[in-house]
Amino acid sequence: MTSQDENEGTWHLGSMPTSPPPPGQWTLRFGEAISDDEYASHQASAGLISETISSSSFAELQRRYNRFKDVLSQVASAFATRQVTPEMTQSIGNELEDVLTALRRFADRTAHALSQRYGRESQEYATFTQALSYEFDNEFAYRFAWHLRRYSDHKGSIPFQIREQSQLGSDERIDRQFWVALDSRTLLENHDWHSLVRLDLERINGEFPIEPVIDGLHFSCSRAYCKTLMAQEPLIMAAIADIRNLATRAAPTDDVGPIFIRSPSTGVSPMTITSVSIELADVAESALRQARVITA
Length: 296
Prior knowledge:
Elements: H1 4-7, E1 9-17, E2 29-34, H2 36-54, H3 57-80, H4 86-118, H5 123-138, H6 140-155, E3 161-168, E4 174-183, H7 184-188, H8 195-204, E5 207-209, H9 211-231, H10 233-250, E6 256-264, E7 272-275, H11 278-295
Antiparallel strand pairs: 1-2, 1-6, 3-4, 4-5, 6-7
């Protein structure tokens, strides 16, 4: 339990050196006092950016997509040198499952976060749900991946095959191609697919590589996410401005980093030091810049 004394005190803006000072010369600089409301405003701004961008379910989808691509690259290299192992092949299935799980979480958790922050009748919420509907209706990769997750839930695994092709090049070097394939005929057996996906698979009528599908899924989710970011642009820009204003007031020069310091009202309570979230402001600005390009 926190005592009343520990809750009392005054927030100050302050700074610390950005590079390690000489031993024994560590310096903590106090600046102007700020109100509890100003500190709370910073925390709300940092929370918005973290929830929406850096710690979002889309960021987790991005990480899992990158891991899937890395594993494919590693297995392809191992095939080229004849050093592939069953464990490496199994890792492809694991990473594929992880991407599909992240897809579902992206859709569910983003919708939940938007409804909690803005309400289910808000434009922000509507923008996201409409963006996902557009991807489902217009992009095979998105709708297939969405229902491949359900297929995996019912069947226990995704029946992929490793394919490799070798050709002798004009320079007498062997050119090896590696890909992971699914067979639409196998997928159609004993599973009740969504009508649009069933038509897609019937048109394919044979093997097709999974990597372009996951690439397409990633782009669909990126586009939907960017549309949602742009719907929140005014609030995110206000959060960036709030953080940067406090950072500039705390550390007006480049050789120091901005911090908050809570000085205790008595000599008994410890001093509290937290950082001003300037990195989050930079992340948010970069994310909005990319979103404008993707949604242009």
